[in-house]
C-alpha cells in the first residue's frame, strides 16, 4: 500500500520497505557494484537459509553452470560477507546430528542486493537504448 | 583413490591459517566430498591452493576490512569468480604464496619422516547417516553403499547425466552386490535393436524386485538403456528425473529399444543377473558411471502417528513366511485377505484392478524404503520419496486406492466413477498409517559419464 502524500515523513519512512530507508540506501551503496560471485551468493540466499554446498549448487544453477564456486572461494567470500554483515549464520553446525552450518541474508544483505539489482536494471536500460540507437544508424 | 584425494585436500586445508581453518575447515571438507565428482579434483585443488594463498596473504597483510565490491579484478580470478578480494599487490601475494609453500614443504617433509602420517580432518556427513561413497562404477567396482534404492534421473551440473535416487538409511541395499558374489559376467550375450512394434515375452522383470529366476541361467529382456541401467544397479528413476537425464544424453538412449538375450552358467539369482548386466553394459555400451550425492526436493515418507502403523501394514514376521506354502485367495481384493496376501512371492509387488475400479497394490517381505521407492512409480510423482518412518525390518502391506487426482470415469462417459475407495494419500494414511511430506533430502545420484551404441555381436 502506497503511503498517502499527507502522511508524516516518519510514517512514510516506516511504511517504506526497510531497504529503502535513506540510511540503509547509503549503507548499501558503499558495497556496489557487486562482483558476480557476491551477486550469486546473495541471490542464492534469497530463497532462505542454505549451507555452503547448497549455496554452491544454487549459484551454479542460477548462472547456468557458468560460475562454479569452489569451497575455498565460497568460504573466503562468506568470511567477508559475514564480516561486513551482509550474511549471518542462522544455525550453527551440530556434529552430533550431522547438521551443517546454515547461512542467511541479513536485512542489510537484502538491501545491498536490491540496490545492486536496481543498479543493474539501469545498466540494462541504458544498454538496450544504446543498442537500439546503434541499430538505427545507417 | 578417493581416500588419497581426500587426504591431499585435507592436507591443503590443514595448511590454512588456524583461524580460517577452525571456522570453515569442516565445511570445506564436507563440500569437497560433495563436489569432487561434479567439479573435478583439479579444480578443487586449484581452488584450495588459491584459497591458501589468499588466506595467508590476508593474515600477513591484514590491512583494512575487505570490501565486497568488484571494483578491482582479482589477480587470482580464473575458473572461479571472487568476491571483491582486497586486491593484494603482487608483492603481498608473493609473500602469501611463499608462506603457504613453506608450510607445504614442511608438511611434505613431515610425511617423509613419518610415513604413517595421515591428515586427520574431521569428516562427517550432513544429511545422511552414512557417508556418501563415490567411485567409478564398472564390473570390478561394487556399487556404493545404499545404492540399491530410490529413483530418478536428474540433470547434473556438468555435461554428464545424472539420476538421483533415495538413499537407504542403512547399508543393506548396497550389500546386495556383495551378497550376490561381486563382479560376474554372462557366458554369452547378444544385443539387438528391437524391431518396430515388436514386444517379446521377457523372462525377468526390469525392476528392483527380487522375484526368483527360472532355472537355466537364461535372460531375455527388452528395454531402453535407462531401463537396463535401472535393472543392473537396482535403482528406480522417477519420471521427471528420467526425462531430465535423457535431455543430457544422445537421443537414441531414450528412443532405442534393445532385446538382450544372454546365458549364464548355473542358476543365477536375479541379483547375480544384475551384476552380469552391469558387466555387459560396461563392455558393450562402454557405459561408465559413478555415484555421488545431491540435495534435491523430495517427499518424506513418515508415520502419521508416531510408533503406530495402519491396519494394512504389518511386520512380515506376523504374516506368512516367504518359504511357506501359499494358497491363492478366492477373492484377492477382499479386505479379509491378509496384507500382501494376494502375492505368491516375497520381495515383489503387484497391482490388481479391483471389481470396484480401484487399484490394489501389495507386497510381502519388503522394507519401507522399497515402498518409498515405488510410490513415485505408482503415482507418477516426479520427486523421489525417502523413508523417514524409522521402521526397520520387512513388512507386508496392501493398499487399496484410486490414483491421486485421476478418478476413474464411467466407461463410455466422462463422468467420474464413485469407487468408494479413498485416493492414494488418504489410503496411505488410513490403511498404512503413513503420510508424505515435502522436504529436501540428500539422495544418491548416479552420473552417466559415457555411453555408446552397443558394439556388434
What general form of chain A does the structure show?
elongated
Average pLDDT confidence of chain B is: 75
N-to-C terminal Cα separation of chain A, in Å?
A: 47 Å
- Largest protein interface, residues of each chain: A-B, 44 and 47 residues
**SSE series of chain B:** HHHHEEEHEEHHHEHEEEEHEEHE
Detailed description of the structure:
The complex is a heterodimer of chains A (138) and B (457). Chain A has 138 residues and is mostly helical. Chain A contains six helices and two strands; from the N terminus they run H-H-H-H-H-E-E-H. Chain A is elongated. The N and C termini of chain A lie far apart (47 Å). Chain B has helices at residues 2-14, 18-39, 41-60, 90-113, 175-180, 225-233, 239-246, 251-255, 270-284, 368-379, 424-432; strands at 135-137, 154-155, 161-165, 188-193, 218-223, 258-263, 288-303, 313-315, 349-353, 359-366, 385-387, 395-401, 434-450. In chain B, the strands form three sheets. In chain B, strands 1, 2, 3, 7, 11 and 13 form a six-stranded mixed beta sheet that branches. Chain B has a four-stranded antiparallel beta sheet with strand order 8-12-10-9. In chain B, 31% of the residues lie in helices and 19% in strands. Chain B has 457 residues and is of the alpha+beta class. Mean pLDDT of chain B is 75; it is low at 69-86, 113-160 and 167-173. In chain B, helix 3 crosses helix 4 (90-113). Chain B is built from eleven helices and 13 strands. Chains A and B meet through helix 3, helix 4 and helix 5 of A and helix 2 and helix 3 of B.
